[in-house]
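Input for the complex:
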Amino acid sequence: MKVNLKVWRQKNNNAAGKLVEYGLDNISPDMSFLEMIDVLNGELTRKGDEPVAFDHDCREGICGMCSMYINGRAHGPQTGATTCQLHMRSFNDGETIIVEPWRARAFPVIKDLMVDRTAFDRIMQSGGYVSVNTGSAPDANEIAISRTIADEAMDAAQCIGCGACVAACKNASAMLFVAAKVSHMAVLPQGQAERSIRAERMVAQMDAEGFGACSFTGACSVECPKSISLDHIARMNREYLGAKLTSENV
Amino acid sequence: MAPNQLSTMELQSKVPAGPLPEKWSRHKFALKLVNPANKRKYDVIVVGTGLAGASAAASLAELGYNLKAFCFQDSPRRAHSIAAQGGINAAKNYQNDGDSVFRLFYDTIKGGDYRAREGNVHRLAEVSVSIIDQCVAQGVPFAREYGGLLANRSFGGAQVSRTFYARGQTGQQLLLGAYSALSRQVANGKVKLYPRTEMLDLVMEGGKARGIITRNLVTGKIESHSGHAVLLCTGGYGNVFYLSTNAMGSNVTAAWRAHKHGALMANPCFTQIHPTCIPVKGDYQSKLTLMSESLRNDGRVWVPKSKEDAQKIQKGQMKATDLKEEDRDYFLERRYPSFGNLVPRDVASRNAKYVCDEGRGVSKTGLAVYLDFADAIKRDGQKTIEAKYGNLFEMYEKIVDDNPYETPMMIYPAVHYTMGGLWVDYNLMTTIPGLYALGEANFSDHGANRLGASALMQGLADGYFVIPYTVGDYLATIGPADKVSVDSPAFKQAEKRVSDQVQRLLSINGTKPVDEFHRALGLIMWDYCGMSRTAEGLKKAKVMIQALKKEFWTNVRVTGDNEEMNQALENAGRVADFIELGELMVDDALNREESCGGHFREEHQTEDGEALRNDDDYAYVAAWEYTGENQPEVLHTEELVFENVKLTQRSYK
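Predicted:
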């Protein structure tokens, strides 16, 4: 099949960027979207042009590195999938495909389709953990955790930290990302000791990073490759409010 | 002992004397401690932030050392440990089914075809129980029974249920646990993180590791980092085959450059080919996706009995479901009646290759076998199968565009894990004082074949429970003053070496993109140093790799500059190292005149085609020493001593 690409090219964070058009023939519908970009990059390199920079690593939908905004949607037209899990058979022969980076003030562009998501790491550092030193844990079966609770924690914990939620949100809010971690730990007994301070600190860091407010449109959850539910945002709001009412921290 | 052995260096494994179950406890007591107040005077460098790296950095920071942690990804959480699906073993015996530390030890030694050290493997089994405790305390949401206690499953042919899991995302949850511990230490100011930073050289002075040279992947800046010890937790080298289940960025560069400074590389030819991966579709393919081994618990592996039927299927004239029961060959069940579809990975892979080589493979390429769930669905109902494997079936359908509930899955073996790696002693120290290797980057625990759910166990064992003890002994011995400044000539010379190589790669200005060399290397390795090897093929491969190396350094095209994000440049350096490693793997495979585990030499097989070990001559670790550009590497051997297990021919019949 043939595709007509319009790809965001930007030399670095200070340079101005623009959409550049490329045509590709002989694309197999079985190719992944990133393999199609590999083909483009091979052609560019052979011509002596610079290949398109983009983040990718595991190419099986779990590392959270790939991050393309395709035809106006985070990770493209499929739901419940990352860019690397998208295949060319999702597009029509001859289709024009627009490829952009995540757009958010808190995710500055590094080059082309690659953005800086270290804000997420800083949010995790502000409280996304249980304070337990290596070696100090009790026997793993000491605490029984009901299957429902374990499943609920797992639903939240499977966030891959890709940032699609931020890219999909008109306010570039990181609520779904933060809520996934707050919720994962709030439902588990292991997370109770630091429950309040965690919610407070992670929300404060999220605000400090320049992410927008949540207006509950639900776009984040729709575009989330792991389909993380909005319920977690609701839980985080309760956690945060509860923490603020009782805590002297932050 | 092999006749061509050129041993000049005595490899000291430092496995302590004494009864097997007491070795680690005695050793821990014998190790020197660093006074709590002195710990802050030591700087430790950790390269790689997967299970081994993140757990090591977090644990050492908790003790009070100053850590610097480096990863090439944009965040430590993305290291490829994240992709492990199936689970993590631990000898908890929660199921009361006869498991014990000794049984886990025994299974691992046997599964590795008796090419690993007893002492190391027993320690691994011992600390496995603490790993589960630690991960649960961190909030890792392992699967649970209705009563709220932890669930287990049997995995990878084990006859006990000792595998802990978190849906099909165990690696992800364990890594996020270690990442959270690491993040906590970043917040405490004990770890400084360097994401998007790649180690390009090791700095040596006075025979010790003193630090590393890195390139900032965003700015291109070449930087020096000095430390009292350097821990390489950089994973395996499966991407030498280009197509593998590894992440695209997984590479051997840090380990290889340490090797060039004198760290011996052990058993590099021991690579694991995983039997259940999605088959190759076309030459554009960039990676292979693993389907968890747990699928073999319920799926039946088969191909058509006749070549004629296989050809019809390959041409699309016939479907799998059209084939009658009596025309199908369930070849694993037929050849191995007692283990059936659950034989170890190396055995399953090799047999899939045989039936495809006979022309009985399926799919357009003829390089695939069926993994059929029809019987399991009939027996247990689709709901049960969906609950067990739903996410895997979904993943398969996304990639292949075929519904595995209705037609059998197609699978083929793919490179998955490398058992070989940097040689380390019982303390995980390489042959360079102060340089350690943890996790998949070292060679130590899996022998010639790794069992399922053991990689996660080893990465975390090394990082949480081994290195915090052993690195302290080294640091206490050298003292805080024994550190070299980044302004010293050793660092300046190393920086220059790195800059020179970068400039050289940029100035070749040839015609071929880096990827083309990588693909070419991968094909050579897969054809001649893959699932089955011959002396003739290996010799041919060596010549081909040498020619490829020459062409690479005269005809590669790397566009752009150093002073910017330049992925082609990053890749060029990695592929250059893979080419050199590939040649060493071929040498190692040629030297090992036996078949064991994942290393199958066609010259050495039993009458019915099983691997034939040669314990008299090859019960050793082959550790290779770099002697200079284009010079043959020198072989050193470490004799493997078995005091607690009897070496037997593995039989899964």
